[in-house]
Design the sequence.
């Protein structure tokens, strides 16, 4: 079993260790049919993609697509979920350079508004150590994911529910309705096998992506073959895997 299109990879444009060209070279070496470069959205003060770099990344990728006919290379952004209303940190002028957009929750981002610091960011941190907050936070986060899919044209949710607990069932139902792919990520704890089992009751697609931050991790599925086996999900439901 192997990844055919690694849809989630990072480069030196955020905090990855290798350049776009090096990642593409490695992708060709390990026989990927396609690779998507998806560095972090700009609300990460340390490593979000700078606005001025979108055009540069697009030009690099266009040139590599011209150069190679054995691989397809796409530009995306792993945008950050930054507010309870399902806000993500990508602007129209950045979007125009991208082939498609993914979104995920991370620590260390700048919240969408002052209000979101108090109603969204802090409760998500606090719920990790204060179990009584968990139910309220899960309900809020579930609504946030659904609103995000309603208000934004995103193709993939990276590591759904990781760092930001959710109720997977309504999220999977909404993802199926909006045609959003749910990621199975080898570097994160969610989705886990139990969550996949619940999500697969709905006609939603899944993808396994390496989330590589260097060439060595590219295409690396780690323990995800065991996870999907434990979930009992047919390979045909995972859009970027070959037997
Ligand atoms: Zn991520
Ligand atoms: Zn990532």
Sequence:
């Amino acid at each position: 079993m192997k990844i055919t299109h690694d849809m989630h990879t990072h480069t030196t444009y955020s905090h990855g260790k290798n350049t776009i060209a090096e990642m593409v070279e490695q992708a060709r070496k390990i026989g990927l049919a396609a690779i998507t470069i998806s560095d972090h959205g700009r609300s990460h003060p340390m490593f979000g993609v700078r606005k001025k770099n979108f055009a540069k990344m697009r030009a690099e990728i266009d040139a590599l697509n011209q150069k190679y006919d054995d691989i397809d290379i796409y530009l995306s952004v792993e945008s950050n979920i930054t507010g309870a209303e399902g806000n993500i940190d990508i602007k129209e002028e950045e979007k125009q350079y991208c082939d498609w957009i993914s979104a995920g929750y991370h620590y260390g981002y700048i919240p969408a508004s002052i209000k979101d610091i108090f109603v969204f960011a802090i409760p998500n941190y606090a719920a990790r150590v204060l179990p009584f907050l968990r139910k309220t936070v899960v309900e809020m986060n579930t609504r946030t994911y659904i609103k995000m899919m309603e208000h934004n044209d995103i193709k993939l949710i990276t590591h759904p529910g990781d760092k930001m607990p959710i109720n997977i069932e309504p999220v999977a139902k909404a993802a199926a309705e909006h045609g959003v792919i749910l990621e199975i990520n080898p570097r994160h704890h969610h989705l886990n096998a139990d969550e996949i089992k619940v999500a697969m009751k709905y006609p939603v697609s899944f993808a396994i992506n390496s989330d590589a931050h260097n060439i060595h991790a590219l295409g690396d599925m780690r323990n995800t073959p065991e996870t999907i086996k434990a979930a009992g999900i047919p390979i045909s439901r995972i859009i970027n895997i070959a037997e």
Summary: Residues 2-242 form a domain with the TIM Barrel fold (CATH 3.20.20.140). The radius of gyration is 17 Å. The mean pLDDT is 97. The first helix runs from residue 20 to 29.
